[in-house]
Amino acid sequence: MSDTRPIGVFDSGIGGLTVVRALTIRLPHENIAYFGDTARVPYGSKSPQVVRDYAAQDTDVLLKHDVKMIVIACNTVSAVALDVVQKRARVPVVGVIIPGAETAVRASKKKRVGVIGTASTIASNAYANAIRQLDSAVQTFSRACPLFVPLVEEGWTEHAATGIIAKEYLFPLMQEKIDTLVLGCTHYPLLKNVINSVFHNSVMLVDSGEATAAAVARVLEEHKLRNKSTLKPNIQCWVSDVPQKFTEVGERFFGQKLGRVQRAAGFTA
Amino acid sequence: MSDTRPIGVFDSGIGGLTVVRALTIRLPHENIAYFGDTARVPYGSKSPQVVRDYAAQDTDVLLKHDVKMIVIACNTVSAVALDVVQKRARVPVVGVIIPGAETAVRASKKKRVGVIGTASTIASNAYANAIRQLDSAVQTFSRACPLFVPLVEEGWTEHAATGIIAKEYLFPLMQEKIDTLVLGCTHYPLLKNVINSVFHNSVMLVDSGEATAAAVARVLEEHKLRNKSTLKPNIQCWVSDVPQKFTEVGERFFGQKLGRVQRAAGFTA
C-alpha cells in the first residue's frame, strides 16, 4: 500500500519552508502541499485568540487539497492553537513544539535549556511546559527575539547589526549557562552562524524543523501513510497574498528552487 | 453651525496614533474615531492588491461610526489605495502623501529631497510622483527601511543597533546631499533623534503627520465641518485584534494616555 496524497504543511508565511526543507531531506519522495498566510503574516506579535482563528482557516485550506496529515510549521500556531488544528482535521497533526522539546531534553547534558521565539510563542510557555512534562529536572530559560524575523527577511543574516542584537537578546541565556538552545521560530535556522558565534559554538542549537521531520516520518509509518513511490515529488505552494515575493524570497528558506506558487482563494477580494 | 461628528482615522495598526497626536494638537476639540487593523498589521510588506482590499474594509469600519471625514494615517495605504478610499467614502478623504510632499517641496532649498518608508510605499513611488507634480525641478531619492518599524515596536529608538542600521539605510541619501527628508511612515517620527544624528542635524525632517493635520484643518474649514465645541474631545479607538497590546504600546505613539479601546467586529471569529 502506498499513499500518494500530499503532506499538508502550513505557516504564517514563508518561514515554514525551512520545515519543508527538512521534510524533503528526510522524506524525499513525499508530495507536499504548503500554505503560507502571507496576507496576514506575522502571527508572532498577534494575540492567541486571533492566531487560533487564523489556524482554523489555514487548516481548511489544506484539507481542501486532500492532505494525509498536517504539519504545523509555525511555532506560534503550534504553541497556542495545536488543539484547534487537531479538532478540525480528520488526519494526524504534528506541531513543531513537542519534537523540538524532545530533541532539547535528549541533547542537554547540564539540563539547562534556552528557548528563543516570537513574543507569542515565548508568552505561551509552550516549550517550557513541554520540556517540563518530558523531564521535570530540566530548567528552561526563555527569551522573545522580535527583531530576528525582520532581520532574516531583510537578508541580514550576517550583518554587524544582527550580531549586536543577537548578543543583547542572548546575553541573559548565556548567563544562565545553558548548553542547549531551541530555535523556536522557523526563521531562526537562518541565523545559526550568528547565534553560534555569540555562544562561541558552546551551545547545541535545536532546529525544531529537523526534529519535526523525524516525528512526521514516525507518524507516516505508524498510520501506514507512506508514499512508496520513488518518483520526484510534487511540492505545491499556496499563499494568501500574491505569489511574487514568496517565490522570490522562498528559495533562501527552502534551499532550492520553488515549484509552482498559487494564490489561495477566499482570503481577500 | 458645529459638526460634532468624529474625524475618522485609520492605519494598519498603531503607527497612525502619531497622526492622531498631531491632529489633537492642531484641532484640540475635534472628536476622533480611530481604527487600527492590528490583526493584519503590517501593510508595508504586503502587495498593493491586498492593501487595497484591506483599505476598503477599514473604510467601512469608520463609515459605520458616522465620521465626517477620513484621514488615511498610513503611508502605505495613502500610497497605493487613496482612490479606493475616496471612491468608497461619501465624506472628504485626506491621505498623508500629498501633505507630506507639499511640506517637503516648500522646505527644500537645494531641491534635493529624500524619502524613506516601507517597501510598499517606496515601490509605489507615490511621494516621488507627488513631489514631481508640485515642482518638477525637485529631485527625489528614495530608500525603503523595513527594519525601522520593528525597531520602534521593540522600543529601541535610541539603541546602538538602531544607529548602525539607520546609518546603513541613510548613507545613500547622505551621498546625494539631500537637505530635506520625508519620514514616509508613521512609526518614523519616533526615530527623529537617531535620524538627526546620522545627518548631524543638517537635514530638515518632514513629519507627514504634522503636515496632514494642517491639511485636515483646511478641509474642515472648506467643508464647514468644524466642531465649534470647546469641550474635551472624545477619542475612541477600535482594533481588529484584542485591545491589550494596542493600549499598552499606544501611549508611546500618542504621547498621552489612550481612552477606551474596543475590538472591531467582523475581522475574526
Give short descriptive properties of this protein.
269 residues; four-stranded parallel β-sheet; globular; Rossmann fold; six-stranded parallel β-sheet; 17% strand; alpha/beta; 10 strands; homodimer; 2 domains
Task: Tell me the layout of helices and strands.
The structure is a homodimer of 269-residue chains.
Chain A: E1 7-11, H1 17-26, E2 32-36, H2 48-63, E3 69-72, H3 75-88, E4 93-95, H4 97-107, E5 112-117, H5 119-124, H6 126-134, E6 139-144, H7 148-153, H8 160-175, E7 180-184, H9 192-198, E8 204-207, H10 208-222, E9 235-239, H11 244-254, E10 261-263
Parallel strand pairs in A: 1-2, 1-3, 2-9, 3-4, 5-6, 5-7, 7-8, 9-10
Helix pairs in contact in A: 1-10, 2-3, 4-6, 4-10, 8-9
Oligomerization state: homodimer
Q: Mind summarizing the main beta sheet of chain A?
A: 6 strands, parallel
User: How many DSSP E strands of chain A?
Assistant: 10
> In terms of structural class, how would the helical and strand content of chain A be classed?
alpha/beta
The unreliable regions of chain A are none
Major sheet strand order of chain A:
4-3-1-2-9-10
Helical stretch tally of chain A: 11
Q: Percent of residues of chain A in beta strands?
A: 15-25%
Q: Under the CATH scheme, which architecture of the largest domain in chain A would be assigned?
A: 3-Layer(aba) Sandwich
Overall pLDDT confidence of chain A = 96
* CATH topology type of the largest domain in chain A: Rossmann fold
CATH class of the largest domain in chain A: Alpha Beta
Q: How many structural domains can be distinguished in the coordinates of chain A?
A: 2
Give the chain pair forming the largest contact, with residue counts.
A-B, 32 and 32 residues
